[in-house]
Amino acid sequence: MPNDLVTMRARSDVLELAILGQLQDSPLHGYELRKRLNATLGLVRALSYGSLYPALKNLTAAGHIEAIDTADLPHALAGKRTRIVYQLTAEGKERLASTLGSAGPDSWEDEHFDVRFSLFDAVGPEVRLRILEGRRMRMLERREGMRQHMQAGRERRDAWTLELQRHGLEQIDREVHWLEDLITHERRNTTDSQQTTSPANPTSPTHPAATPSDTTKE
After folding, report:
1. 13 within 8 A of 54, measured Cβ to Cβ
2. What is the distance between the alpha carbons of residues 27 and 50, in angstroms, rounded to a whole number?
3. Cβ distance 73 to 85 under 8 Å?
4. What is the spatial distance between Cα 24 and Cα 68, in angstroms, rounded to a whole number?
5. What is the DSSP string of the chain?
6. Which CATH number, 3.40.50.1980, 1.10.3860.10, 1.10.10.10, 1.20.59.10, labels domain 3-102?
7. Which residues in the chain land under pLDDT 50?
8. How far apart are the first and last CA of the chain?
9. Residues 33, 96, 111, CA angle at the centre, nearest 5°?
10. pTM of this prediction?
11. What's the pLDDT tens digit per position in 6-62?
12. Cβ 37 vs Cβ 106: under 8 Å
């Protein structure tokens, strides 16, 4: 498959995952869904209705979401004015859970990472850690590649080009530091959770084997 088609497919997959993630809590109108997706994806990838509705159509055809009339809804979305909202189907919930439960290389690439990160609250710590560590590995590779590129032919570049490259390298450095802080925090939380749920440590002061009351006096 040509690279441009691969990129388009990747973007489509990311958008569809983002839609499923936004619908996991409640049904949404197209306008509200677009607003939330724009907040998630950021201004760099501002979402248009031209890309949203084809994605909604694809997800509906795949059976992952369904369009329903607000008049049929017994909650706050129901009103006098009939509008269409979208909600997850059982198959859509399974698809979302399956995708969020995985942590393959795609999940830490540029096209996927932001959306996966925005849905971290719905996944376990092991998955979060794997994605964060994968992203850090990718950024370290990118940083090394940029450093080598900057050194090669440095004397042939003007001062502004070198400054732009230095700025790019600083941005990568900041992301690496940010990721390392998140990884340290996640590992600490995972360790604390394991200690809380594990059996008592025999050498702990609260364990009977270590209390003075069990020491036999001669």
Report:
1. no
2. 20
3. yes
4. 15
5. --HHHHHHHHHHHHHHHHHHHHTSSS-EEHHHHHHHHHHHH-GGG---HHHHHHHHHHHHHTTSEEEEEGGG-SSTT--SS--EEEEE-HHHHHHHHHHHT---GGGGSHHHHHHHHHTGGGS-HHHHHHHHHHHHHHHHHHHHHHHHHHHTTGGGS-HHHHHHHHHHHHHHHHHHHHHHHHHHHHHHHHHHHHHHHSPPPTTSTTSGGG-GGGPPP-
6. 1.10.10.10
7. 43-44, 202-218
8. 82
9. 70
10. 0.78
11. 667 777 888 899 999 999 999 999 889 988 888 877 644 666 667 888 999 999 999
12. no
Tokens of 49: 């209705």
